[in-house]
Design brief:
One of its GO terms (biological process) is L-methylmalonyl-CoA metabolic process. GO terms for molecular function: metal ion binding; methylmalonyl-CoA epimerase activity. With 338 residues, this protein is of the alpha+beta class.
Length: 338
């Protein structure tokens, strides 16, 4: 009996040592991958569509996204087709990149004379996939998409418990039959309550900080609205000294302003951009379209810009990320001209 106990103890000790060794090498491999791969995030998601114009129309006119770049038609040689497991008789490909709000881009592929399968993969098939779009108000989004004739695969379901507690989701179909998803968690997800070391990235908070650090200042809604109002004053101010003084109160020193065509970093670069706007349109001013929306340390402002006789010559939306009491990121969305 004593011999059996000793044997069991040796086996347990060996098992624990082996487990620790596995965990050690797993952690080492993860650290090595993070350092060597040098991957910082998802740039785009690619999907094949049967009709490129139909897909562009859906993503643009129904979901409100913006087509940006086009490649093709590009002829594909036999070696490429064989390497990528494609049918030999399939024709050239045309590629369109869609800017999909705050998140990864969507890359659309249309193959001329496509000889590949036209059958969508089943929900449990290898390779089946979907794209999930975040919304602050899932009921409003569902009602709107239904008014556009979009088919839903059920009704929004609210997760009652677990890591995804507080998340609502529902699947819908594109006109060509691909499955997509709407998801919403305006008050966060259940796992965030435990202050995890890692947080999932979310388009409702581009910095990936759905839980602010304990040392970070959480601004009141009135304070955020006041700073956003001052932001408008900054962009309307033509006196450089006054503008610089206001920028120091509102913008972090290392602020980044991200627009679809460029990124401006720091006060100096943003100042240069504002100066250019005043020189090009000396009589134009920025003003509200509607009230400022605030969600924790995030805010959005719908604005218009133009002279007094056409104040809405240009319209758009600014998304503000606040850290330590100031704007650290400013995302600028300019509406397409009609």
């Amino acid at each position: 009996m004593k011999t059996n106990n000793k044997t069991n103890q040796k086996l347990q000790t060996s098992a624990i040592a082996l487990l620790n060794l596995v965990l050690f090498f797993s952690a080492s491999e993860k650290a090595e991958a993070q350092n060597s791969a040098n991957i910082v995030g998802i740039d785009h998601v690619g999907i094949n569509v049967p009709d490129l114009n139909q897909a562009i129309g859906f993503f643009t006119n129904v979901l409100g996204f913006s087509p940006v770049t086009t490649l093709g038609p590009i002829p594909l040689d036999d070696v490429w087709k064989k390497t990528n497991n494609m049918q030999a008789a399939t024709g050239p490909v045309t590629i369109k990149m869609i800017q999909a709000g705050t998140g990864a881009n969507i890359e659309l592929f249309e193959y001329k004379d496509n000889k590949g399968s036209t059958q969508h993969p089943g929900g449990d098939d290898i390779g089946a996939s979907h794209i999930a779009f975040y919304t602050d108000d899932i009921k409003q989004s569902v009602d709107y998409l239904k008014s556009k004739g979009v088919q839903f695969l059920g009704e929004p379901f609210l997760m009652p418990s677990g890591d995804t507690e507080g998340e609502s989701w529902v699947y819908f179909l594109t006109p060509w039959g691909s499955k997509m998803e709407l998801v919403s968690y305006p008050n966060g997800k259940g796992y965030e309550k435990n202050k995890p070391a890692k947080l999932l990235w979310s388009p409702k908070n581009p910095l990936g900080k759905s839980n602010l650090s304990q040392n970070e200042e959480i601004l009141s809604e009135s304070a955020i609205r006041s700073l956003v109002e001052t932001h408008l004053t900054i962009w309307n101010e033509k006196d450089l000294k006054k503008r610089v003084a206001l920028m120091k109160k509102v913008y972090a020193d290392a602020i980044e302003m991200v627009e679809s065509h460029f990124i401006a970093k720091g006060h100096s670069e943003i100042n240069g951009f504002i100066d250019g706007l005043h020189k090009k349109n000396p009589n134009s001013r920025f003003s509200h379209i509607k009230a400022i929306d605030v969600n924790h340390n995030i805010a959005r402002l719908y604005w218009q810009n133009g002279p007094s006789d056409k104040p809405d010559a240009v319209t758009g939306m600014d998304l503000f990320i606040f850290e330590n009491g100031k704007v650290s990121r400013l995302y600028v969305f300019v509406d397409d001209k009609k």
